[in-house]
Amino acid sequence: MDQPTGPQTEFSLVQLLPNVLTIVAVCAGLTAIRFGVQGDYMPAALLIIAAGILDGIDGRIARLLGSSSKMGAELDSLADFLNFGVAPPLILYFWALRDSRGLGWICVLLFAVCCVIRLARFNVSAKSEDTQRDSAYFEGIPSPAGALLVMLPMYLSFAFADRPMLPAILICLHMVLVGLLLISRIPTWSFKTTRISRENVKFFLVGVAFVGAALLTFAWVTLIALCLGYVVMVIWAWIDRERPSNR
């Protein structure tokens, strides 16, 4: 006898794991805002980094488990806006821009608007069947990378506490620049098509362990290095994409 085919009514706990990770990331972003309001900026910045790590693994786990869903995709997009479009500029505002006579708040709004436009553009592009996309590249920097880059002034201040803080105007300009990079057409590697040969897997795992240990031991210097390394990668991807052989 044929079984009725209808929507799935029960899910295993393993299938719900990606959505659980997304909810945990939302909690991390909201808690980061709370710490920012209270003036605890170091844990606030680290919670944004934790939200970025969770964002990087929840979608991949969903694809590995075959539990991807439209609800999960929408939940992930909303979480990205909160964690990477709202929390980081707010924390920067509480940290250094409250005395900038409204200029700081304008920059916060601009960054948030750029982030939501970037997410909307990505969602439309992902759902469109007419556009031909190169899966090896994103258009503009992704929102988690934008959050990592926009907080660079904080990393510099925490790593070099004996140096004066950057002027508010420079922090504002930096925030605007990163926001514009979010909605730019600059190609950035998506890493989705990156493959590692069997011979190099051990070196890759050692590198991951090294970066993890560095983050736990020298968090702020490591984050500065990651930001600078990512900028170099963006420049290199732009040059590589514009070569005649890649057209």
Automatic annotation (TrEMBL):
GO biological process, one term: phospholipid biosynthetic process
Location of the protein in the cell: Endomembrane system
A single MF term (Gene Ontology): CDP-diacylglycerol-serine O-phosphatidyltransferase activity
Family statement: Belongs to the CDP-alcohol phosphatidyltransferase class-I family.
GO CC, alphabetical: endomembrane system; membrane
Statement: the UniProt record of this protein carries the keyword Zinc-finger: no
Organism: Paracoccus versutus
Catalysis performed (reactions): a CDP-1,2-diacyl-sn-glycerol + L-serine = a 1,2-diacyl-sn-glycero-3-phospho-L-serine + CMP + H(+)
Membrane topology type: Multi-pass membrane protein
Transmembrane helix is among the record's keywords: yes
Keywords: Lipid biosynthesis, Lipid metabolism, Membrane, Phospholipid biosynthesis, Phospholipid metabolism, Transferase, Transmembrane, Transmembrane helix
Protein name: CDP-diacylglycerol--serine O-phosphatidyltransferase
Catalytic activity, EC: 2.7.8.8
Residues spanning the membrane: 12-35, 41-57, 78-96, 102-120, 141-160, 166-183, 204-237
